[in-house]
Design goal:
about 350 residues; alpha/beta; five-stranded mixed sheet; D-Maltodextrin-Binding Protein, domain 2; Arc Repressor Mutant, subunit A; about 40% helix; 12 helices
Amino acid sequence: MSYTRPAEERPAIIAGDSSTGIALRGPKIALNPAGHFLYHRAMSSPSLRQLDIFAQMVAAGDAARCADTLGIAPEEVLRDMAALELRLGYRLFDDPAGEARLTPAGRKTAQAMTLLTQDAPLEAEREAQPPPSPAPTAPLRDTIILAAPAPVFGHFQDALAAFEAANEDIAIALDLHVHNVRDAAEALAAGRADIAYFYALEEPAGLQSRYGWSEPLSLYAGSGHVLARADAVSRDMLAITPLLAMEPQNGVRGIVDAALTRGRLPFAAPEMESDNMLEIVAALRDGAGCFAAFGPLARDLGRMSGIRRLALEIPLPAVEIRQAVGPHAAAKPAVEALAEFLFL
């Protein structure tokens, strides 16, 4: 997952409080980004719309009050939250239709939204702000910044909490906007990350990294689709099948396209592009085509009624999850310790 931030914005750092195992970086402010993400039904980006509804739901406390604030139906709020959770690869709320308690991962995501509002304050807010206080001469805790795609964070969230519990002098901050080797290299070189996880199809040149694990790439279609009923699906059969895909700017789209190309699958341009996974699921169930996925999203699709994984004659390339550390890691023993701990 994942929210694709426009190029001109700085990466948000997810921070939390003692209840999440992640140290808060920066002052607490009201979780209400409506001044920056104004909800309306015609908002073109489902990523921004879903993130804004998520922030409003956290502020409101439950789906009914959130819907009343936004002027939409509670069912629409719950539908957008389900779509966002599907894309992120982890749950944001326990009992979203009831008390809507944030999960630990949901709290961290909420803190990311808080700092996102700090990234781009309104001009009036800038003028009203007093001069910044001098930075402290020494932080109370050393901070390690871990950059990773959202589904990889979901994979590690328990390990990160355990590491902080065992190392009270260490705080971990998260940047969820790294997806490929270029993102990782830039974040590490600029000091925006100490450890970076990224997607690749093989060991990349130009950035020293090590293999973490692989996620198989699979194709899915509605259970009523002719390919879903086939015992074996060939390239020729796929050549006449429409492809559904995430939007081009989505961080996952690039690695999926590269894997399909390497697998020599003869798809034309996608018939449908959407970051709203519920729209993708509905289109699959309607027989609109097939969709490629890996990781938590693929596992979720495989468990859904009306969706089936295609039995391909030829295997697709697996997506590797690789780890790289920054050039100054040797001077920060805690960075090396966390990098090794995540491999246990």
